Amino acid sequence: MGRWAIAVHGGAGVDPNLPLERQEAATALLTRCLNLGISALRSSLPAIDVVELVVRELETDPLFNSGRGSALTEKGTVEMEASIMDGRGRRCGAVSGLTTVKNPISLARLVMDKSPHSYLAFSGAEDFARQHGVETVDNEYFITEDNKGMLKLAKEADSILFDYRIPSTAFETCGAASTESPIQMNGMPISVYAPETVGCVVADTEGRCAAATSTGGLMNKKVGRIGDSPLIGAGTYAGEVCGVSCTGEGEAIIRGTLARDVAAVMEYKGLKLQEAVDFVIKERLDEGKAGLIAVSSEGEVAYGFNCNGMFRGCATEDGFMEVGIWE
């Protein structure tokens, strides 16, 4: 029997001026979800079931950017995406472009378990959900007043929202100071950004690793944009040695195949989990900003980020537990 380990995240890249009450709400939610996962692991639930359970909880709470509370597209709608992976056999399921599915992570699990495919998107994914009796709601369910306000700011700045990398004065004006920002994504200028994707990684006592990631994507993103979260090997990966969930600039994470690279350097370079995490954060992101959480089949837990904060929590069977935001 091995040792269990679990980590959760609520996104990398945190507004340095985040109000204290928002920080407290975030840490309370992460603590609740972490304890939910710990209880499930103590009840001998397999890793794949635990990551789905925890991410469902995160999707249901509007605090972070997944499920209810998802970021809005340029048209003011929600297009959600998620993926899940079981390290045993490297089974996986992913979905994109969801507009009515209440819990995208559970539909990703159904794609893995009940379809001949690994990835379904847009109308095909919605049809599959209806065929399997998945709970659906009107798109308005996912849209919060806070996000309506954020979309308005983004449109005024003619930008994707990108808030942790610019001075608060530029965020407040959302005018020339923002639109002239030298920060770019795929060559396009970005002014304000609030990713707050959610994810969970687990290693159970059988040494099985699993990972799950869910997001609404970028505020003011183009309709049809797909980020790293549903892409196996980019935003999510689980294999024999580890499970990884990423968050941050999706385009940079995709280019760096970030999640898979953590496993690869463990497998091919012999690095330990934290060493592997540190290596990919330093060497694989180029100018991008991101973070990730990871567990190993030996019951270790690790995280890393190259921005000013990441909402995260982690725990291991030997009694270690941490919930934090900043360095």
From TrEMBL:
Known catalytic reactions: Cleavage of a beta-linked Asp residue from the N-terminus of a polypeptide
Alphabetical UniProt keywords: Autocatalytic cleavage, Hydrolase, Protease
A UniProt-annotated Pfam family: Asparaginase_2
Entry keyword annotation includes Lipid metabolism: no
Active site: T197 (nucleophile)
GO biological process: proteolysis
Enzyme Commission number(s) from the entry: 3.4.19.5
Residues holding substrate: R225, I226, G227, D228, T247, G248, E249, G250
Entries under InterPro entries matching the protein: Ntn_hydrolases_N, Peptidase_T2
Swiss-Prot/TrEMBL site (Cleavage) positions: E196, T197
Oligomer status and interactors: Heterotetramer of two alpha and two beta chains arranged as a dimer of alpha/beta heterodimers.
Name this protein carries in UniProt: beta-aspartyl-peptidase
Organism: Kalanchoe fedtschenkoi
